Amino acid sequence: MSSSTASAPIIPIPLILPVSPSQRLPLIHHALCQAGASLAELRYEGRGMLGGHTLRLQDPHNGDLWNRIDPATQQTLDGFLWQLVLDRHPRWDHGTGSFGVVAWEVRADRIRHFHYERIVEIKTSLIEGL
């Protein structure tokens, strides 16, 4: 008894590696390196549909380097990092809200996103009478 079953063709799955920030934004990466920044950090906080964010460029030896890059580069960097927050946590400022940090470690060429949600726990007790 023979069975003739056709086997499905094997389709190779390409290895997809994450795209580094410098590959995604080479001009921004170059500007950060030229400014001497080791860290671009966006911090955000919000609750009750209110909140905001700040962006800083830092170097452990030279402090804040924000004024060393041009306004167009600042705006592009701010928009890119803020869009990461909005894509990953679109309701970040609803209810009790949340806060976090998106950090582009320039020398290591990686982005780390720390997000924290507020959770409010309420305990209710009822006492009747004396």
What does this structure look like?
This protein has 130 residues and is of the alpha+beta class. It has a single domain, classed as Murine Class I Major Histocompatibility Complex, H2-DB, Chain A, domain 1, CATH 3.30.500. The protein is 25% helix and 28% strand. Strands 3-2-1-4-5 form a five-stranded antiparallel β-sheet, with helices on one face. The longest helix is centred in the middle third of the chain and has 18 residues, at 71-88. It is flat, with a radius of gyration of 23 Å. The protein starts with 20 loop residues before the first helix and ends in a 13-residue tail after the last strand.
Indicate the CATH topology.
Murine Class I Major Histocompatibility Complex, H2-DB, Chain A, domain 1
CATH architecture: 2-Layer Sandwich
Main β sheet profile: 5 strands, antiparallel
Instruction: Give the tally of structural domains.
Output: 1
By DSSP (H or I, 4+ residues per run), the number of helices equals 3
User: First CA to last CA: what distance?
Assistant: 88 Å
Helix-strand topology string = HHEEEHEE
* Overall helicity: 10-25%
Q: Give the CA-based shape.
A: flat
